[in-house]
């Protein structure tokens, strides 16, 4: 779906994986009508040994993103490959290398309750040119 609004700035937030680096950005630009924030997906499945983020911290962080996206008019949330394996109805075994098994049912419910917030891709115009924002590549 394409937006009709012209933004002066678009902020891309890639692969969160439980980290909270996005919080100061969203706090600063949430509801700024000149700024669009696009989360590119992969909200969960933290790199626990690298980033030191527990699986439960990642779930709390994901809930925080959901709350921000549902209360703002300028935040777009996309699905990533690490998100799709929490949708058993998609029969997506996925290409993600890991999944939070201990909270799988809770995460599935969170996604299910908030499906309307998520998109596969987002298209908009910037200075008259069309841009498509997906989590990863796009086939022609």
Oligomer: single chain
Mean pLDDT: 87
Specify the structural class: alpha/beta
Count of beta strands: 6
Strand content: 15-25%
User: What is the N-to-C order of secondary-structure elements (H for helix, E for strand)?
Assistant: EHEHHEHHEEE
The portion of residues assigned to helices is: 25-40%
Number of helices: 5
Describe the largest sheet.
4 strands, parallel
Radius of gyration: 15 Å
Low-pLDDT windows of residues: none
Termini separation: 17 Å
Strand order of the largest sheet: 1-2-3-4
What is the general shape? Answer: globular
Features:
alpha/beta, about 30% helix, two-stranded antiparallel ribbon, single chain, 5 helices, about 140 residues
């Amino acid at each position: 779906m394409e937006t009709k609004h012209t933004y002066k700035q678009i902020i891309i937030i890639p692969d969160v994986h439980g980290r909270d680096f996005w919080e100061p950005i969203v706090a600063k630009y949430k509801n700024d009508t000149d700024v669009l924030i696009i989360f590119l997906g992969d909200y969960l499945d933290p790199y626990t040994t690298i980033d030191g983020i527990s699986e439960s911290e990642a779930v709390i962080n994901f809930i925080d993103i959901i709350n921000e996206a549902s209360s703002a008019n300028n935040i777009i949330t996309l699905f990533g490959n690490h998100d799709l394996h929490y949708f058993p109805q998609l029969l997506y075994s996925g290409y993600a290398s890991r999944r939070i098994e201990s909270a799988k049912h809770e995460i599935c419910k969170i996604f299910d309750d908030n499906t309307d917030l998520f998109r596969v891709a987002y298209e908009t115009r910037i200075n008259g040119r069309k841009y498509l924002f997906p989590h990863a590549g796009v086939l022609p």
